[in-house]
Structures are given as C-alpha cells and as structure tokens.
Request: fold
Amino acid sequence: MEKILDGKALALQIQQQIKEKIAKKNMEPGLAIILVGDDPASHLYVSKKKKACHDVGISFHEYLLDANIDEKEILDTINFLNKDEHVDAILVQLPLPKKFDTDKVIKSIDIKKDVDGFHPENIENFLKNKSYITPGLPLGILRLLEETKEDLKNKSAVIVSKSKVFSQPMIKILEDRNVKVSLVNPNDKDLKEKTSQANILIVSCGKPFFIKEDMVKKDAIVIDIGTNKIDNDYVVGDVDYSNVFDKVKFITPVPGGVGPMTVAMLLYNTVKLSQNK
Reply:
C-alpha cells in the first residue's frame, strides 16, 4: 500500500481534466493575481500558479505592486478587476505586507470573483450550504483524504491551526462526512494528548518539525500544510516527517503534498466561476 499521499501526481491528473474541459467547451476563463511586495515565497507561489494556468488554458493576469504603495492603489486595482469582463477570478496573494489591512482588501473583492472563498460573505455562505465554490485549500485536502479510499465516517480528526479562515470550512467539510472534528490551538497545553487520539491529523501552524512521533496516533492519516523554509533550498513541513513516517497509515510530503493540490483547486474554482457568469 502506498503510504505517501502524492499531491503532485493527483494535481497533474486534475489539471489534465481541467485542460480537457476548457478545450471541449471552448471556454476562456481568466484569473487575476495581485502580488504586493517582494516576499520570495509569495513570488514562488505565484509563478507556480502562472505556469499551471498556462498549462491548462486559463488566461493569467498578473499585477505586481510595490510594497511602498498606498492601500488605495490595491483597492483601485481590485475595483478595476471587479469590472473587467475578461477576469472571472481574483486572488490577492497572502500574506500582504503588515502595513495593509488584509480584511479590508479581501472584502473589496466581488464575491462572485473571490476564487479563494476568503470573503466573509463567501465563508458565511459556504457554512450555510449556499456557496458556489468550496475554498481551495480545504477542497484540496478533501481530495487527498479521498485518495486514501478510507471510510471517513465516525473517524476523529484534529486540526492544529490558529486560522479561522482555513479551519471553519475544513471543519464543515469533515463534519458533513460524519467526521468528529476538534480544532486545537498549537499552543494548547494538552496538544500532545489531543493529537495522539486523532485518526486524521491536519496541521497548519508554520513551525518546522513541530509534530513529533509521540504526538501521532498509530495508523493515523496525517495532512501537513506547513511550508517552512529552513534555508534558501530546503522546505519542510510542520510534521517531523521522517520520524513519524513508519507510525502512520498515510501522510502528505512537504513539498509535493498539499501545495500542488491547492494550485489545482485554484484552477478548478476559476473554471467554476467562469461557468457561473
């Protein structure tokens, strides 16, 4: 049995399906990405999204803005894209430089073009089953869980994260499949006790090798969202992968696990928004 959940291979399958759909239906979906500042990781992520768009036939519109600009310039760019008929989907690459109000920027995106599903109205709609799209990161994780072919019903899941924007949709997706979910703060004093009971452990805390072997239940499914740069060439997850590996039933690698799936789901949601015009 293959223990490694290969997000890269699955993402390529999904991208091939998207490419065929775009060609068959003669679609012209358009994605615009706004990138502010010169954070190397953000530039790397955007370049991967750009390549993926070109590979499947999605028109890519890139707006690179200097970190020294006024917030109004970001809002004006979003306002322009909200009205642009060639753009179906808008993404602001996060994190923004600290001086900007991220919530205000996200709220300025037209909810019909909010491809990440981060707009408060879209999160609310999703939680009420009224949303047209599922936020890309939790959707990508669901697809990875489905790859295990495990019956998720009545399993227990622990999400280690501080992010409400991520955890709220993730909890709903799992609870809709009868998974018993707990959200745990990475600083919780009883963290080890809680994580070691989980059939499914999903970790997003931005701390390299944070989850050790003794914090994981035997035969658990481990989804590692962390991408931590150790130096310029080396990226690791939040889970101590090599020491945890033998104990678990399935695990996502970093890199090559959740990351490629998030990009694939971005393309998937761009096409959905294009169809919903």
